[in-house]
C-alpha cells in the first residue's frame, strides 16, 4: 500500500470535523457546547450533519467528544460496549438512573470500559477544552443511543424532537416530523428504574485502568488492557492494548482484520510494506488486514499508543456487566 493510499485511512487530529448538533441534548443548557466526532464507522450520531471520516467496517466504531469546561454529555445508555480514554483534560464520568449512583474522575491516558445497560454521562471538569476518544462495540454501535427519560423531556423544552427513526428535528429552525413519523417514545419511569445503578466501588476496580498503571505493566511488552485476559477482563467484541517505548519493536506483524492505532502520548513512526508515516496524539490510523506493519516512538520522551482490534466475541452485554 502506497503512502498516498494509506493517508486515506489516517485521520489527523487537526483534520477532525465536529458536529455540534449530534444528539438530542444539543440545545439543552450545560450540554449545548459539546462537539461530536465520528472517526471510524457510522457511530451513533442522530444528526444528518455528522461527518464520517472512515466508513470501512472494523467490527467497532471510533469516535470522540470535545467539550469546554463545565460542559456535560447527558445520561444515556448503549446496547454494546462504550470505552473512553482521555486524550486531554480532566473528566468526571457518572452513572445511574439520575447520574448519582457513582462517579470517577479520569485524566490524560486513563481508560474506562463503561458497563452496558446503565445510564451514564460525562463532563469536562478541567480548565481548558478537553477531548475523550471513544470505542463503541459493533459495526452498527448497538443501534444507537437510549436516553434517560428526563433528557428527551428537557430537549423538547429547547426545541429538539427525536423521531422514532432516530433522526433529530429542530423546531427552532422550522423543522417538523414528517407525516406518518412519530416522536421517539419516552421511556417510562418504571422501565428506567430497572436500569442498574452500581456504586463507585462496584465499577471502578473492574472497569477503570489508570494510565501510569498501564505504562508500568507495558514496560517491556505490550499490555492487554481490555480483553478476556486483560487488566479489565471483558469480551466486548474488541481488544484494547497499550504499547510503550519499552514494549515497541521494529519487528513487522499483521492481523487478519483491520486494526487501529491511536497515540495518547509521544510521536510514533508507523512502518508498513509500502511506506511509513508519523502519528501524533489525537491521530487515528486504520491499518488494513493482512498488512505487515510496526510502530515505535520517533522522538524522545513519554510515549504510549492504544491498539484496537476486533474479536469474534459478540458486541453486546458480557459476563462482567452489572445488570
UniProtKB/TrEMBL annotation:
Classification via Gene3D superfamilies: Jelly Rolls
Transmembrane segments: none
Domain Cupin type-2, first and last residues per copy: 69-132
A Pfam family recorded for this sequence: Cupin_2
InterPro entries for this protein: Cupin_2, RmlC-like_jellyroll, RmlC_Cupin_sf
Protein name per its UniProtKB record: Cupin domain-containing protein
Record organism: Pseudahrensia aquimaris
Amino acid at each position: 500500500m502506497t503512502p498516498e493510499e494509506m493517508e486515506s485511512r489516517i485521520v489527523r487530529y487537526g483534520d477532525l470535523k465536529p458536529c455540534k448538533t449530534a444528539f438530542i441534548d444539543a440545545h439543552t443548557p450545560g450540554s449545548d457546547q459539546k462537539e461530536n466526532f465520528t472517526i471510524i464507522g457510522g457511530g451513533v450520531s442522530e444528526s444528518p450533519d455528522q461527518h464520517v471520516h472512515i466508513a470501512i467496517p472494523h467490527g467497532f466504531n471510533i469516535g470522540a467528544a470535545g467539550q469546554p469546561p463545565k460542559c456535560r454529555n447527558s445520561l444515556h445508555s448503549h446496547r454494546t460496549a462504550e470505552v473512553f480514554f482521555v486524550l486531554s483534560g480532566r473528566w468526571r464520568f457518572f452513572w445511574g438512573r439520575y447520574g448519582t449512583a457513582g462517579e470517577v474522575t479520569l485524566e490524560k491516558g486513563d481508560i474506562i470500559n463503561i458497563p452496558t445497560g446503565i445510564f451514564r454521562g460525562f463532563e469536562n471538569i478541567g480548565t481548558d477544552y478537553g477531548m475523550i476518544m471513544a470505542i463503541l462495540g459493533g459495526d452498527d454501535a448497538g443501534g444507537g443511543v437510549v436516553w434517560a427519560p428526563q433528557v428527551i423531556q428537557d430537549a423538547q423544552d429547547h426545541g429538539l424532537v427525536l423521531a422514532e427513526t432516530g433522526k433529530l428535528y429542530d423546531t427552532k429552525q422550522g423543522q417538523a416530523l414528517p407525516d406518518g413519523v412519530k416522536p421517539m417514545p419516552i421511556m417510562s419511569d418504571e422501565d428506567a428504574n430497572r436500569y442498574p445503578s452500581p456504586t463507585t466501588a462496584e465499577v471502578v476496580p473492574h472497569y477503570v485502568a489508570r494510565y501510569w498503571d498501564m505504562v508500568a505493566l507495558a514496560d517491556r511488552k505490550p499490555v492487554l488492557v481490555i480483553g478476556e485476559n486483560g487488566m479489565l477482563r471483558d469480551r466486548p467484541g474488541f481488544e484494547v492494548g497499550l504499547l510503550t517505548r519499552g514494549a515497541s519493536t521494529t519487528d513487522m506483524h499483521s492481523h487478519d482484520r483491520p486494526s487501529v492505532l491511536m497515540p495518547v502520548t509521544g510521536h510514533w513512526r508507523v512502518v508498513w510494506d509500502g511506506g511509513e508515516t508519523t502519528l501524533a496524539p489525537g491521530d487515528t490510523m486504520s491499518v488494513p488486514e493482512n498488512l505487515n506493519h510496526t510502530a515505535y516512538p520517533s522522538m524522545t520522551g513519554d510515549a504510549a499508543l492504544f491498539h484496537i482490534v476486533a474479536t469474534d466475541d459478540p458486541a453486546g452485554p458480557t459476563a462482567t456487566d452489572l445488570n
